[in-house]
Amino acid sequence: MQNIINTIKSWFERQAFGVCDWWGEKLRIKSAAIRMFFIYASFLTVGSPIIIYMIMAFVKKLRNMMQVQRRGSVWDL
């Protein structure tokens, strides 16, 4: 049962852009606590943290795309 829960959790994290996981690594906080913050803040402020979450996901995706496209020098072969 725990294996199924972990599989679902990892699938959701991949689909949710990994923003909470990324913030968790940066701030050294469990990503579950950050997810709970976004959930509670969304209920209290009628959804505005969802917009912030999507902006952070866009910036994270854009940053990853820029790092992939960065070319090294000729001497890095």
Question: What keywords describe this structure?
Answer:
mainly alpha; extended; 77 residues
Structure in words:
With 77 residues, this protein is mainly α. It has one domain (7-69). Helices cover 77% and strands 0% of the residues. It contains four helices and no strands. Helix 2 packs across helix 3 (31-44). The longest helix has 22 residues, at 48-69. The protein starts with a helix and ends in an 8-residue tail after the last helix. The relative contact order is 0.09. The model has no long low-confidence stretch (mean pLDDT 79).
User: What class do helices, strands and sheet pairing give?
Assistant: mainly alpha
Distance between the termini: 47 Å
Helix coverage percent of residues? over 70%
Gross geometry: extended
Q: Quick one: how many beta strands?
A: 0
The succession of helices and strands, N to C, reads HHHH
Largest sheet: none
Q: How much strand?
A: under 5%
- Based on CA atoms alone, the radius of gyration comes out at 16 Å
Q: What's the structural domain tally?
A: 1
Give the integer mean of the pLDDT values. Answer: 79
Number of helices: 4
Low-confidence segments: none
